[in-house]
Amino acid sequence: MKNQTYRMTMLFDFYGDLLTERQKEFFDLYYNEDLSLSEIAENSGISRQGVRDVIVRAEGVMQDVEDKTGLIRRFLQMQTHIAAIQNAAAELKTINYRQYEDRRIDALADTISLSAQALKE
Fold this sequence. Notes:
Layout: H1 4-15, H2 21-32, H3 37-44, H4 48-69, H5 71-100, H6 103-120
Helix pairs in contact: 1-2, 1-4, 2-4, 3-4, 5-6
């Protein structure tokens, strides 16, 4: 994946509900709100190391689940395939417009595009 923060926020989006409330809170503050470990520690009344331990444990839990299920990996692969389907449907429409002007081809390309969009959402 692109970078550590992106990877962690993807893990949180998919598996955040598996965390304790404290893990969710600290993880969100650190990765989404961009607070430092010291800022979170000061606001929570615990040590910086305590905050780091909670976040590292949360990362570990979510990474373990991803390693076992592969949901994010499959999701990202699916997004790539959906984009390819949408591009192919758009190209079909363009070729049809330039060469054939067949309404049925146009309708099928629209159906493909709409179905791909539905899968993407």
